[in-house]
């Protein structure tokens, strides 16, 4: 697991859990404006909270005890002493995820382009309370987008024009288009999360309920409901915009007839408490990147000396926090010349496949744990899991020769513990 994937998982977890809370406490309520604000707030909190981590006193919710040290990629040394880095397991996922973002971003831009082309073809010829109105020919449906109303076939119904314009005016005045555009952007970024489809549907319904309620507030409700019943149950021509015609007409009619009430204090209090507790859990859990192998397998057979070294380092951390050896930092150390590629070049020039082990066809992975000091030097290097004395000594020798760009935490240079896996592998 990488930091970007960790953020992605936490953000999607927040989106799912906060939607569940909405369903539990605010389902079928009639405080449409408040519900809309809460849904939008849930999406904003979901993308911000995973960026904020803090250490809560007495709370240890991380997986640091399972995998306490950051690992470098496995470096393979062959019989020709030519090191190579193991393929990044998340490389394919990053490309796949990036391709999805690109696809949905292009889809959004294409729909905006469709809307812009429609606006150019049909200029505003009228206005309603200062809002430009463009008349569309059949079979286009009525919709609005930001500061313009596009009047379609619904406006030709007897006595319908005024109420249709009043309905779309609410969408414009309440900036409902901004909500939908925001959800489309989130869908492009978190496209693998199906709950965003639910967010979009709920927001669209709330927009229609709010527009219906405000439109019929000073009018005859029965007459307005009769208008809705006459409107064709067709989808909008422009999916990103608001359409007067939707397939949930019956639900809209029922909502218009319901008595409008505000959100109860108890519901809001319970929702706030549960959301706050969950967000506290997220920000208190500094997730550590998962590594190439399970920790139990890697550290099963740790030498007593290495364990003593680990305990000594831990004691240093306790007694002198300013010189603590950190396991996870904001910026992990990198090889001081050209990063991983530079490390491969260094190992190519310095590491050797011991002759005795090559003759005996000894293979395996040696795990070297060390501390990158504030000046980039290596200290406390030891073999955490070895293969043979020859392979272990060679890997340890070379690891001690490396130099690094030190890690940073909170903008400050810190001591960081690392693990360098070196795999010795002979050809078949």
From TrEMBL:
Database matches in InterPro entries: TonB-dependent_transducer, TonB/TolA_C, TonB_C
Topology relative to the membrane: Single-pass membrane protein
Membrane-spanning intervals of the chain: 6-25, 37-55, 91-110, 131-151, 180-199, 261-283
GO CC annotation: plasma membrane protein complex
Keyword line: Cell inner membrane, Cell membrane, Membrane, Protein transport, Transmembrane, Transmembrane helix, Transport
PROSITE patterns associated with the record: TONB_CTD (PS52015)
SUPFAM superfamilies: TolA/TonB C-terminal domain
GO biological process: protein transport; transmembrane transport
Compartmental location: Cell inner membrane
Entry keyword Cell cycle: no
Pfam short name (any one): TonB_C
UniProt-recorded Gene Ontology molecular function terms: energy transducer activity
Annotated TonB C-terminal domain residues: 338-428
Family according to the record: Belongs to the TonB family.
Protein name: TonB family protein
């Amino acid at each position: 697991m990488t930091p970007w994937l960790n953020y992605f998982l936490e953000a999607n977890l927040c989106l799912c859990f906060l939607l569940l809370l909405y369903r539990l406490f605010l389902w079928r309520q009639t405080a449409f404006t408040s519900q809309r604000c809460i849904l939008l707030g849930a999406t904003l909190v979901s993308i911000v909270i995973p960026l904020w981590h803090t250490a809560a006193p007495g709370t240890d919710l991380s997986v640091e005890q399972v995998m306490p040290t950051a690992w470098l990629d496995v470096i393979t040394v062959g019989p020709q002493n030519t090191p190579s880095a193991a393929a990044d397991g998340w490389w394919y996922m990053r490309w796949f995820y990036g391709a999805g973002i690109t696809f949905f971003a292009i889809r959004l831009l294409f729909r905006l382009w469709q809307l812009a082309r429609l606006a150019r073809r049909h200029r505003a010829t009228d206005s309603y309370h200062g809002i430009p109105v463009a008349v569309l020919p059949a079979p286009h449906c009525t919709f609005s987008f930001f500061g313009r109303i596009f009047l379609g076939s619904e406006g030709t119904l007897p006595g319908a024009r005024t109420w249709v314009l009043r309905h779309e005016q609410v969408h414009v005045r309440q900036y409902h288009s901004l909500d939908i555009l925001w959800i489309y952007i989130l869908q492009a970024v978190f496209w693998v999360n199906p709950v965003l489809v639910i967010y979009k549907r709920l927001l669209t319904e709330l927009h229609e309920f709010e527009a219906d309620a405000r439109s019929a507030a000073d009018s005859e409700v029965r007459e307005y409901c009769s208008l809705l019943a006459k409107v064709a149950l067709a989808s909008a021509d422009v999916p990103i915009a608001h359409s007067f015609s939707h397939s949930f007409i019956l639900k809209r009619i029922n909502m218009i007839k319901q008595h409008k009430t505000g959100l109860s204090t108890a519901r809001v209090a319970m929702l706030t408490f549960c959301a706050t507790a969950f967000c506290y859990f997220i920000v208190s859990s500094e997730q550590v990147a998962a590594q190439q192998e399970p920790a139990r397998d890697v550290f099963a057979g740790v030498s007593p000396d290495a364990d003593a070294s680990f305990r000594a380092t831990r004691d240093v951390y306790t007694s002198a926090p300013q010189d603590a050896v950190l396991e996870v930092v904001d910026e992990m150390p990198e090889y001081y010349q050209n990063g991983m590629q530079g490390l491969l070049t260094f190992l190519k020039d310095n590491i050797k496949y011991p002759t005795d082990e090559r003759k005996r066809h000894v293979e395996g992975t040696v795990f070297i744990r060390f501390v990158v000091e504030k000046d980039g030097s290596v200290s406390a290097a030891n073999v955490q899991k070895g293969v043979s004395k020859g392979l272990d000594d060679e890997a340890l020798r070379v690891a001690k020769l490396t130099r690094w760009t030190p890690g940073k935490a909170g903008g400050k240079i810190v001591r960081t513990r690392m693990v360098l896996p070196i795999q010795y592998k002979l050809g078949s």
